[in-house]
Amino acid sequence: MYQHFFKRLLDVVVSFCLLLALSPLLALVGIILYINQRSIFFKQTRPGKNEKIFKIRKFKSMNDKKDRKGNLLPDFQRMTATGKFIRNTSLDELPQLLNVLKGDMSLIGPRPLLVSYLPLYNTKQKKRHLVKPGITGWAQVNGRNAISWDKKFEYDVWYVEHISFALDVKILFMTLQKVFKGADISASNNTTMEKFIGNEQRT
């Protein structure tokens, strides 16, 4: 009952209020990004509940510089100073409130990953798609990019099997603590988490 009606109600009310309250900040970040890199949003298709594909939006933290062969440079070479700041403060995630308001995402849930990962999940890992993906989740407050893929999926499935209002409130408060501390943003010294390569992933 919670995840069908009350969770959706919580998503709509909280995301609308946050968008309204944070609109000056969102506008400021957008202006700064446009001035520095002439682009504001990062857009990409991601799988949602029941693997339904939707388009996610984030503030863009990296430029599109390429090498002589036309391939994108490594993440750490494309990360701008502004991008590093908005990622460390999690400001890059704020446009996803629009995805929550639209109904593609929830405030709390497993993070929406790449579409290309769908064929790589085992039966248990696929359970993460039984609920809407979230801006933050149980895996994010328990290590985020600092933990292995296996552990991350373990946390995601645990959340799906134990979803409740009390758990969502706990995750929201833990998320705020993580954001203020700037904890677990990157995996080791990498800018982003290494790609998931399936059940043969080694950590």
Structure write-up:
The longest helix has 36 residues. This protein has one domain. Helix 1 packs antiparallel against helix 4. It is mainly alpha-helical. It has 6 helices and 4 strands, in the order H-E-E-H-H-H-E-E-H-H.
Can you give keywords for this protein?
203 residues; mainly alpha; two-stranded antiparallel sheet; two-stranded parallel sheet; 4 strands; globular
Strand content: 5-15%
- Which percent range fits the helix content? 40-55%
User: So how many helices?
Assistant: 6
β-strand number: 4
- What gyration radius follows from the Cα positions, in whole Å? 17 Å
Mean pLDDT: 89
Number of domains: 1
Distance between the terminal alpha carbons, to the nearest Å? 38 Å
Strand order of the largest sheet: 1-2
Largest sheet: 2 strands, antiparallel
Summarize the helix and strand pattern as letters.
HEEHHHEEHH
Unreliable stretches covering 5 or more consecutive residues:
186-190
Briefly note the structural class of the backbone: mainly alpha
Shape: globular
Topology:
Layout: H1 2-37, E1 41-47, E2 53-59, H2 75-78, H3 81-88, H4 96-102, E3 106-108, E4 134-136, H5 149-162, H6 165-181
Helix pairs in contact: 1-4
